Amino acid sequence: MTAEELKRRFLEYLEIERGRSIKTIENYDHYLTRFFEYSNVQKPSQISEEKVRTFRLWLNRQEGTNGFLKKKTQNYYLIALRAFLKYAQKIEVATLSPEKIELAKVPQRSIDLITVDELNRLLSATEGKSERLLRDRAILELLFSTGLRVSELCSLNADIDLSREEFSVRGKGDKVRVVFVSPSAKSAVMQYLKSRKDMEEPLFVSYSKAGKNGGRLTPRSVQRLIKTYAAKAGITKKVTPHIIRHSFATDLLQNGADIRSVQALLGHANISTTQVYTHVTDSHLKDIHKAFHGKQRG
To answer: Could you tell me if residue 110 is inside a domain?
Structure first.
């Protein structure tokens, strides 16, 4: 079996048996193809530690628009290759052991947040009775109430049942989780739906300059409208849908929620992804420093 044939079977396995998204499969195809082409791999048996090492060196020296390729991006290639080798091992094809590949260490990610005051100013920037303004307020309220990813938000349909103030959403890896709607978010969504005059399926629709319905709102459009309202609210720092998701998580942790519950609410597969938030919630450390530091100096 050639490396290309094995790759095709691997990608089909991801799609059919593992239920991975088409986007994930396209990414894995890209990462593996790049490795095969650079390393001149024709057969699975040709994959060696030395070829992986030289490929990693090559990746590390690639320059992009914002400097050299980030370690996190480099790891995407290694994750795809490791999954490919694990599949080869599963169907008993002789090749390099997946355990031979270690991911590069990446620096701990810093979390960008907006303050409660900035969040309130952002929401106030959507004040108004027009259908578009009601839509935008509903978007912001729902993002902060649920911690939804922007893609999850855009996939919601107008037949959403808010009577129980909770609903299910299908997230990354096709996993379903329950999210909860605050009274203010519920009120904002209901007001927006009441103002709608169309019978379109999406919960959030786009509007042309003439005010006409242009179909389902896209993640890119949500990013743009949040940027616009942030500027209108006088917020100079970067504000994105994901930063509102960060604020949702830290708000819960700062008010006493446990890390496992926040992991479930965010839809994180691994607790390590959620733990990036914990360092910004250690407010008690300030009190400890104040109480115990420098006492002998008088």
So the answer is: no
Clarify whether 121 is annotated catalytic: no
How far is the C-alpha of 4 from the C-alpha of 32, rounded, in Å?
A: 9
Q: Which of 100, 135, 151 is the last residue of a domain?
A: 100
**For residue range 121-137, what is the model confidence (pLDDT) as tens digits?**
999 999 999 999 999 99
Indicate if 25 and 127 belong to the same structural domain. no
Q: Are residues 247 and 174 in the same domain?
A: yes
For residue 222, the one-letter residue type is V
**How many structural domains compose the chain?**
2
In this structure, which amino acid lies at residue 16?
I
* Catalytic residue (one of 149, 192, 229, 246): 149
177 an active-site residue?
A: no
DSSP 8-state symbol, 21: -
Expressed as residue numbers, the domain containing 74 is 3-100
Catalytic annotation present for 290: no
291's tokens: 């109480």
**Does residue 234 share a domain with residue 87?**
no
Question: How far apart, in whole angstroms, are the C-alpha atoms of residue 182 and residue 90?
Answer: 46
**Which residue of the set 172, 177, 196, 227 is catalytic?**
172
The pLDDT value recorded for residue 66 is 72
Residue-wise pLDDT for 198-239, tens only, equals 889 999 999 876 656 678 999 999 999 999 999 999 999 999
Model confidence, pTM: 0.71
Q: Which residues share a beta bridge with 216?
A: 205
- 242: annotated active-site residue: yes
Looking at the fold, whether 216 and 272 belong to one and the same domain comes out as: yes
Active-site residue flag, 149: yes
Average pLDDT, the chain: 90
| Catalytic status, residue 28 | no
